[in-house]
Amino acid sequence: MKTILHKSETRGHADHGWLNSYHTFSFANYHNPERIHFGALRVLNDDTVAGGMGFGTHPHENMEIVSIPLKGALEHKDSMGNIGVINKGDIQVMSAGTGVYHSEYNKNKDEEVKFLQIWVFPDKRGVEPRYDQMTLNDDDRHNTLQEVISPGFDKGLWLHQDAWFYLGKLDTDNTQEYHLKKDTNGVYIFVLEGEITIGDQKLHKRDGFGIWETDIFTLKANTDAEVLLMEVPMDI
């Protein structure tokens, strides 16, 4: 088993006034040659956007983009004609493929929005752009790992990649055993709230921990905790 630890305070940071962003991996003006990506996971940004502010229309291509609101509401518009709002409890997926323009704004003028912006390298380039979103059932992750994204077309949201995302909301002392889907994959765990232990490694709020070259690992909640698990290919 191989592991890598990214403590929350070691992340890149950019405060633009309207945007306060923490970067787990190199992004924009933050460049760390030792933290470019974890396998196919390229970007994990922890963003807070002031009321009424946001990202103006800008392009993307050949990237799978996932947005997970943690507080507030995020308004999306894109060149495919999609207009929508994602709230805490929702999840959004966009395949940029051959190219797409989009904007993301805080829907509300009087409160901030917090969300995770995640980019995953696709397993094929030049696909037709697409957009999808889903409202999740919070109860489906209580003391379990709720699958929210997979590579398949038969349920939930999916990516152009052999990647699986899970959310868990765990009570103190709850234990979860995770079996990797493929031996060439790794799992990146991001702690949203609370404290957990994996092996002998304690992880706190906004810590990240990567695991690969193993078939299985066990996660224990030391306090009430919320976690995001992202299984992605490592051989890219």
What does this protein look like?
Its cofactor is Fe cation. It comes from Zhouia amylolytica AD3. This protein has about 240 residues and is mainly beta. It has two domains: about 10-135, Jelly Rolls; about 140-235, Jelly Rolls (Sandwich). It is built from no helices and 22 strands. The protein has strands at about 1-5, 10-15, 20-25, 40-50, 55-60, 65-70, 75-80, 85, 90-95, 100-105, 115-120, 130-135, 145-150, 155-160, 165-170, 175-180, 185-195, 195-200, 200-205, 210, 215-220, 225-235. It has a seven-stranded mixed β-sheet, with no helix packed on it. A hairpin with a 4-residue loop joins strand 7 (about 75-80) and strand 8.
Summarize, please.
Keywords: Iron, Metal-binding. The protein is mainly β.
Quickly count the domains.
2
CATH topology of the largest domain: Jelly Rolls
Helix/strand/pairing class, anyone? mainly beta
Could you tell me the number of beta strands?
22
Assign the CATH class of the largest domain.
Mainly Beta
Oligomer: single chain
Level-2 CATH architecture of the largest domain? Sandwich
Number of helices: 0
Strand order of the largest sheet: 1-20-17-22-15-13-14
Could you give the order of the helices and strands? EEEEEEEEEEEEEEEEEEEEEE
Overall helicity: under 10%
Keywords: Iron, Metal-binding
GO molecular function, one term: metal ion binding
Cofactor: Fe cation
InterPro entries: Pirin, Pirin_N_dom, Quercetinase_C, RmlC-like_jellyroll, RmlC_Cupin_sf
